[in-house]
Structure prediction request, 122 residues.
Amino acid sequence: MDLPKVLYVDDEVINLELLRITFKNEFNIITACSAAEGLKLLDIHSDIHVVISDLKMPGMNGLEFIKEIKSKRQSRVCMLLTGFLESEVMLEGFNKELIFRYLMKPWSRDELNEIIQEAFRR
Prediction:
C-alpha cells in the first residue's frame, strides 16, 4: 500500500528522524535538512501534497520556503512546525493564505497525526 507522502524540512536531523519514525505506518515522510533541498525534492516528487517546515533554518527560513512552494503550486498544504512563537510570521502566513497550520514543538503525536490527516482532506 502506498502511504501518502509528506515532506518535512528541518535543519535538525534528530527532528527529521523523530517525525519519520513516529509516523512510519501512517505516512511516507520524505525529509530534507534545508529549504533548498526541500525544493529539489518537491520537483522530483510531484505527488507530495503536504509540506511541514521548521521556521528557523539557515539560508531560507520556513516562511520564505513556503512562499516559494506556493508560487509554484498553490494546492500544496503547508504547515510551520517550530519551537518559537512568532506572531508576525503567523499573521503573514495566515493572511496571505500560505500556511494551513502553525504548530509548536514539542508536538503531540495524536494532535499532529490528526492535523496531517486533515491537511490531506483539504
